[in-house]
Amino acid sequence: MRKQPYEPPAQSVFGQIVDAFIMLALVLVTLYVPLLLKLAGGGTTTSTFDNPTWETLGQNATMATQWEKLGFDPTSAAAIIGVKFDYAFSWIGFAVTAAVILVYFVGMLRWSDKEYREVIAERFDDDRPSA
């Protein structure tokens, strides 16, 4: 007795459009919520220089030449060079992110268990006698 081939549920065009907009909304929320809650980026630190020269700014001759080609002198370049991004790393944030991804993955496997079992049974259940 042969099992019927698995047929995934059909979805209407309207359902596909709604799903696309939901995914777009989720992507936007995922990108903007950390910014709105000030969870993304550690900000910047600014160093000030008294009487800046290319040497005190940490620029060698080649770098200084390139700055000058762009129209900067040591005083105007100091405002740009003095701003550094803070690349602080949070182990707690990393752990929370890893936990969310793990919970999502396990949840998706559990919610999809029936469909996975049907597809695996269709593809790999063998009605042939073993050799």
Question: What can you see in these coordinates?
Answer:
The protein has about 130 residues and is mainly alpha-helical. It folds into 3 domains: about 10-40; about 45-90, no CATH class; about 90-125. It is about 55% helix and about 5% strand. It contains 5 helices and 2 strands; from the N terminus they run αβααβαα. The chain has a two-stranded antiparallel sheet with strand order 1-2. The chain is elongated, with a radius of gyration of 29 Å. The mean pLDDT is about 85.
Set down the secondary structure blueprint.
Blueprint: H1 13-36, E1 44-46, H2 61-69, H3 74-81, E2 83-85, H4 91-111, H5 113-124
Antiparallel strand pairs: 1-2
Protein name: Succinate dehydrogenase hydrophobic anchor subunit
Keywords: Membrane, Transmembrane, Transmembrane helix
Transmembrane segments: 12-33, 88-107
